[in-house]
Automatic annotation (TrEMBL):
Pfam families tied to this protein: 2-oxogl_dehyd_N (PF16078), E1_dh (PF00676), OxoGdeHyase_C (PF16870), Transket_pyr (PF02779)
Role of this protein: E1 component of the 2-oxoglutarate dehydrogenase (OGDH) complex which catalyzes the decarboxylation of 2-oxoglutarate, the first step in the conversion of 2-oxoglutarate to succinyl-CoA and CO(2).
Keyword Transport on entry: no
Gene Ontology molecular function terms on file: oxoglutarate dehydrogenase (succinyl-transferring) activity; thiamine pyrophosphate binding
Protein name (record): 2-oxoglutarate dehydrogenase E1 component
Keywords from the named record: Glycolysis, Oxidoreductase, Thiamine pyrophosphate
GO CC annotation terms, alphabetical: cytosol; oxoglutarate dehydrogenase complex
Organism: Alysiella filiformis DSM 16848
Length: 1008
């Protein structure tokens, strides 16, 4: 053996390319050159390979072993010398460099301001190749692995030319970060086969020109007709409209029947008119303030949604644009949830038939955390929708004052998508054909792999952030370039004129034709179908109820309870139940038999079982929903003897009946914002199901406050969107500190008005059963928010007898005092409260022997406030001089300030309304156990303290002089000591109070 022969060129920087070549050989031996086939075949026969896992053992070591045994001439069958082999490896390295780095050198910036990234890596000289090698032929692979399927070898000049066209023109492809080999090969072969070059017919090109013309002309028309009005123009990114319309027109050939779009406000008006077919006349009415008032509050025109049926070559396509507030990307998980529900309704082929499309802004895409959560959900079992097409309208600026050096730490705004191995297709927005080409590639990829794919449409923004913004103040260089830019439509028209596809007169005619149609309030092309109705459409007429008191039968027969319990307390033979789960199941059997009271877990499970067996699906998600954060639900049973994650799971509620409705329980990703938004979207599209989002602890919902504010509480009044989402929030002061006590009841109540939500704080297990059943049995579709006590889940006194679940029983908005007195006339004080604090106060009353003096009434439904029921309970105590609201929360939190005016409305004569609870606090709760206990003791003492009642009711009636003027703070702090009601008869829905004294007819002016 020639000791001088050197195999060093097989290692170092060349090693990854040799390994890739070897990987190709393992997958398909014929895909590599014959001499490499011989080389690798010899390699595989070596003892060091036989003894090891070839796929994972470093190839370099095997090369080294082989090099010690055979000279290079023999190793490569004598076909080439060492120098030529080194050149071949250099060519492979150059090809790989283009595949990895080519996007950085692609011509994707219409303004030409962005410099190429790492272009030296694409230089032949960087890889040891020179001008002398340009006419030398090199192997480019065979079959699926070839750079060119028509040839086994190409000259170096031809190879570079093909690589440049594929990776460095108007399309830049990022895919080498993808871990799955099949996906990488699919993308590589797709773009290298076509050289990333579209091939459209003259008719198709004219259609694309018309789309770009429509997008530009609408924006310019609005700009001159409604000067200075905000519309968030898409000028500079008109190709996005052409690409979106291409998607809708071509997705049907792969079985897509419905597209759901989520986007922020930029370009939204253009999508409404030029994609969904909204009449321009209707849009003009909105600009002119003449639009019909349909909802109590409504929303601005660039937040509104729309849906229509669009005619395509493959049949009708139902297209929905979701409503979205100014919180930009927050709509994305809402769309995904809606799509999941729609897919489920269609059955087995649902994921192929319903396609989510999300349109992003560049800065928002990578800047807003909800997108991380959305991507994180995209491939999980409970949330996947089979892949989403993302289109980033990348105007390279974000807000007007932004600079990419300040808005992200990544190279591209699309880099966030790499977390889920999504391919990214960068495309120059000035090339609408290239945009349509990558849209088709995205559709094909999504169909093939059921994964997300991102189109980064690099463009610019002709105007400011809005039409009143002057971007030249902070972006002078960019806007000098924009001022000199001819416009995407003009550039594309010139290109087609040069190709002979259209004449200049035809191109100008498209503009005039569209403007003439706008003048008439009409469309140029009518693609919207007016008389078509999809068979998958939901009939919302069944869910229009507005009366929260709508009566339904939520109780069950004893036989039904026994039958259901037998099913959900069954575990398969030989199933290794955990001792805790075994004990829970045994207890539930006893509860169903009536020998033990129902706890909360049993009440909840019985509600779900009754629903799925009667055809109502149930979906629960949260960070620990299967077991229940407090180990009370046990909806999912785990075999303690299981050997893998794929087996040993049994969900009893999925085995209730042969043709039962779906029961889904999901342990969600560790995110509140994206998951709650997802479930909101799901519930909006599945009114026939019980959809639940559960917080691990109630105040974790803080992370989803945007969803609560912008969708849950106001979606109906802004957009007319009915939603029956149920939210379960663990809440209760048990000495667990600030983050594990309060679900921020005060925030929810502050959002309540116009009967928009239901706020419930139950104190008994049966109440949980009835409120869940009631949520789907009624025609009333409003968000339901349940403040569920952790302590009460196993608290004996809060359990319920079997009789509370039987036919004829129902949810009680108010629960009266349970003490049986000979005469209620002895009651001097009525305490109203909600939740678990009732049991603390009831215990304190018993210890003090105050049963005849104090009545305790539980307000289980805090909103809509049950006036009639509360008034009926208060009327039982005609001699009560005081009404006390008692709560666990600090005075500035909890229900006090949102319930106080309602109690004062119910107070009669000289009754005073007082407060008992923790003092005002900046923190939701204390963290010291001793302080917690002291506060609890004090609030119970305050609630039961009768020492101030020294005057009989008859003696309290006297003339009251007008009170002096107070500051708002003084009024708040002193109101409970005033002898009369300082708040007037505020309406049920008002969160504002008129400060008046009805006895003296004097209105107090509050100064601040």
């Amino acid at each position: 053996m020639d000791e001088k022969l050197n195999f060093s060129y097989l290692f170092g920087s060349n090693a990854p390319y040799i390994e890739e070549l070897y990987e190709n050989f393992l997958h398909a031996p014929e895909s590599v050159e014959p001499y490499w086939q011989d080389f690798f075949a010899e390699l595989a026969a070596q003892p060091s390979f036989v003894e090891r896992d070839v796929a994972h053992y470093p190839v370099q070591e095997a090369f080294a072993q082989l090099a010690k045994q055979r000279p290079v001439a023999t190793a490569v069958s004598g076909s080439i010398d060492e120098a030529l082999l080194q050149k071949q490896i250099a060519v492979l390295r150059l090809i790989s460099a283009y595949r990895i780095q080519g996007a950085g050198a692609a011509k994707i910036d219409p303004l030409g301001l962005k410099q190429s990234r790492n272009p030296e890596g694409l230089s032949p000289e960087e890889h040891g190749l020179t001008a002398a090698d340009m006419n030398t032929q090199f192997g480019v692979g065979m079959g699926d692995f070839a750079l060119d399927s028509s040839a086994e070898k190409l000259t170096l000049a031809e190879i570079i030319n093909k690589l440049q066209k594929t990776y460095c023109e108007h399309i830049g492809v990022e895919y080498m970060h993808i871990g799955n080999r099949e996906e990488r090969l699919w993308i590589r072969n797709r773009f290298e086969r076509d050289l990333s070059t579209p091939n459209y017919s003259a008719e198709q090109k004219r259609y694309i020109l018309k789309q770009v013309t429509a997008a530009e002309t609408l924006e310019r028309y609005l700009h001159t007709k409604y000067v200075g009005q905000k519309r968030f123009s898409v000028e500079g990114g008109e190709s996005a409209i052409a690409g979106l319309n291409y998607l809708i027109q071509n997705a049907g050939k792969d079985g897509v029947e419905e597209v759901v779009i989520g986007m922020a406000h930029r370009g939204r008006l253009n999508v409404l008119v030029n994609t969904l077919g909204k009449k321009p006349a209707d849009l003009f009415a909105e600009f002119e303030g003449r639009a019909e008032i349909k909802f109590p509050s409504g929303d601005v025109k660039y937040h509104n949604g729309f849906s229509s049926d669009i005619a395509t070559p493959n049949g009708a396509m139902h297209v929905t644009l979701a409503f979205n507030p100014s919180h930009l990307e927050i709509v994305n998980p809402v769309v995904e949830g809606s799509v999941r529900a729609k897919q489920g309704r269609r059955g087995e082929n649902g994921r192929a038939q319903v396609l989510p499309v999300l349109i992003h802004g560049d800065s928002a895409f990578i800047g807003l955390g909800v997108n991380q959560g959305n991507f994180n959900m995209s491939r999980t079992r409970g949330y996947t929708t089979g892949g989403t097409v993302h289109i980033v309208i990348n105007n390279q600026i974000g807000f007007t004052t932004s600079d990419t050096r300040d808005t992200r730490s990544t190279v591209y705004c699309s880099d966030i998508a790499k977390m889920v191995d999504a391919p990214i297709f960068h495309v120059n927005g000035d090339d609408p054909e290239a945009v349509c080409y990558v849209v088709q590639a995205a559709l094909d990829y999504r169909k093939q792999f059921q994964k997300d794919v991102v189109i980064d449409l690099v463009c610019f923004r002709k105007l400011g952030h809005n039409e009143g913004d002057d971007p030249t103040l902070t972006q002078p260089m960019m806007y000098r370039a924009i001022a000199q830019h001819k416009g995407t439509r003009a550039l594309y028209a010139d290109k087609l004129i040069q190709q002979g596809v259209v004449t200049a007169e035809q191109a100008d005619g498209y503009v005039q034709e569209y403007r003439d149609a706008l003048d008439k309030g009409e469309h140029v092309e009518q693609t919207r179908l007016t008389n078509y109705e999809s068979k998958h459409r939901v009939d919302w007429s069944k869910y229009q109820g507005q009366d929260w008191r709508e009566q339904v039968e939520s109780g069950l027969s004893a036989d039904d309870i026994a039958r259901l319990a037998e099913k959900f307390t069954y575990a398969p033979e030989g199933f290794g139940l955990h001792n805790t789960a075994k004990r829970v199941i045994q207890q539930r059997k006893e509860m169903a038999a009536g020998t033990q009271n129902f706890d909360w877990g049993m009440a909840e499970t019985l509600a779900y079982a009754s629903m799925v067996t009667s055809g109502t699906g149930v979906r629960i998600s949260g960070e620990d929903s299967g077991r229940g954060t407090f180990s009370h639900r046990h909806a999912v049973l785990h075999d303690t003897n299981r050997q893998s994650h794929e087996t040993g799971i049994y969900i009893p509620l999925q085995h209730m009946a042969e043709n039962q409705a779906e029961f889904t329980v999901i342990d969600s990703i560790l995110n509140e914002e994206a998951v709650m938004a997802y479930e909101y979207g799901y519930a909006c599209s599945a009114p026939d199901k019980l959809t639940i989002w559960e917080a691990q602890f109630g105040d974790f919902a803080n992370g989803a406050q945007v969803v609560i504010d912008q969708f849950l509480s106001s979606g109906e009044t802004k957009w007319g969107r009915l939603c029956g989402l149920t939210t379960i929030l663990p809440h209760g002061y048990d000495g667990q500190g600030p983050e594990h006590s309060s679900a921020r009841l005060e925030r929810w109540l502050q959002l309540c008005s116009e009967h928009n939500m239901q706020i419930i704080m139950p104190s008994e297990a049966s109440q949980m059963f009835h409120i869940l059943r009631r949520q789907t049995l009624r025609s009333y579709r409003k968000p339901l928010v349940i403040f569920m006590s952790k302590r009460l889940l196993r608290f004996k006194d809060s359990t319920s007898p079997l009789s509370d679940f039987l036919e004829g029983t129902t949810f009680r908005p108010v629960i009266g005092d349970t003490v049986q007195r000979a005469d209620n006339g002895s009651v001097k004080r009525v305490i109203l409260c909600a939740g678990q604090v009732y049991y603390d106060i009831a215990k304190g009353r018993e210890e003090r022997g105050l049963e005849n003096d104090v009545a305790i009434v539980r307000v289980e439904q805090l909103y809509p406030f049950p006036y009639a029921e509360a008034q009926a309970e208060l009327a039982k105590y005609p001699n009560a001089q005081e009404i006390v609201w008692a709560q666990e929360e600090p005075k500035n939190q909890g229900a006090w300030y949102q319930t106080r005016h309602r109690l004062e409305r119910l107070a009669t004569g000289s009754q005073k309304v007082l407060y008992a609870g923790r003092p005002a606090s900046a923190s939701p709760a204390v963290g010291y156990a001793s302080k917690h206990n002291a506060q609890l003791k004090q609030l119970v003492e305050d609630a039961l303290d009768l020492s101030q009642i020294v005057i009989q009711a008859a003696q309290q009636v006297e003339t009251i002089a007008p009170m002096p003027q107070h500051t708002l703070l003084d009024m708040v702090e002193t109101v409970s000591q005033q002898p009369e009601n300082p708040f007037g008869n505020a309406s049920d829905d008002s969160n504002e109070h008129s400060f008046s004294n009805s006895n003296v007819n004097h209105v107090w002016k509050v100064t601040t």
